[in-house]
Amino acid sequence: MATLPPPDDSATAPPRRWYLTEEQRQVILAALSGPPRMTFEEFLDWADEDTLAEWVKGTVVMASPASLKHQEIVEFLAGVLSRFGRQHHLGRTILAPFLMKFAETAREPDVIFVATAHLDRLTPTYLDGPADLVVEVLSPESVGRDRGDKFYEYEQAGIPEYWLIDPLTQRAEFYQLDEGGQYQTIGPDHDGVYYAKAVPGLALRIAWLWEPLLPLPEDALAEFSGQR
After folding, report:
1. Which residues contact 130 (CB under 8 A, 6 or more apart)?
2. What 3-state class would DSSP assign to 151?
3. Pick the CATH number of 68-227 from 3.30.565.10, 3.90.1570.10, 3.40.50.720, 2.120.10.30
4. pLDDT digit string (tens) for 170-194?
C-alpha cells in the first residue's frame, strides 16, 4: 500500500520570525529614512567654521578636502578679485567656507564676489541671496555638482557671472547671463585674456592658472593696470 505524504500545513503554520540584531535594525532604519533632514537654521547651528558642507532642500551634502592645486588656484583668484575690488571700490570677495543661501539651498562656492550695491545681502554667517560672481574650482568629487545642479541653481538665481576652473584638464570656462537669463559661454580673446563683466575692468590671463608657481595677485594685476 502506498504511503500518503504528510498533510501540507504551511498555510496554517505560524509565520517564521526573524530576529535582527540592534546593529542590523539601525542599518535598515537608516536606509529607509534616508539622510537626516534639518531646517536651514538647524544647519547653521550644526555646522562650524571648518565644516565643508552644503544645505540642499533640507539635507546635508558633505564635500571632500581639496587638493593643493585646487587651493592654490582658489587663493590666487580670490587675491586678484579682492585686491582689484578694494582698489576700485567695486565690492567684496569671500572665500569658502561661507554659505550663499537661496530659497531651498545654501551653497558654499570656492570664491564669491559681491558688488558694492549688494553688500546688504551679507549677514554675519551667510550671503542671503545671489553673489555677483561665483568661482568653482573643480575636483573629481565636485565636478558633477558644479557642472550640473549648481550650474542651473546659479543660473536660476540670477548670478550674473560663473567661472568653472578645472585644474586636471587645464580648462577654464566663463559664463555670463544673457538678456533672457541664461548662461552663455564667453571665451578669452586671441591673447588668452578674459575680461570680467561683474567686475568691470578686471582682466585675467588664463595661462596664469596652470603655472607651477602662480604669480602674486599684485603682479597679475600690474600687467593690465593701464588698461582700465
Report:
1. 100, 102, 121, 154, 157, 158, 159
2. helix
3. 3.90.1570.10
4. 999 999 999 999 999 999 999 999 9
- With beta carbons less than 8 A apart as the criterion, state whether 85 and 93 touch: yes
User: How far apart (Å, rounded) are the C-alpha atoms in residues 74 and 58?
Assistant: 28
Nearest-angstrom CA–CA distance, 192 and 205: 6
The dihedrals phi and psi of 85, each to the nearest 5 degrees, come to: -65, -40
Q: Which helix (H) or strand (E) holds 172?
A: strand 171-177
What are the residues whose beta carbons fall under 8 Å from the beta carbon of 54, sequence distance 6 or more? Answer: 60, 61, 63, 99, 105, 106, 107, 108
Look-up of cell digits 571665451: 187
Question: Which residue is associated with the grid cell 551634502?
Answer: 61
Domain spans of the chain? 22-62, 68-227
Condensed to tens digits (0 to 9), the pLDDT of residues 14-54 reads: 544 445 566 655 544 444 455 568 888 887 787 766 667 77
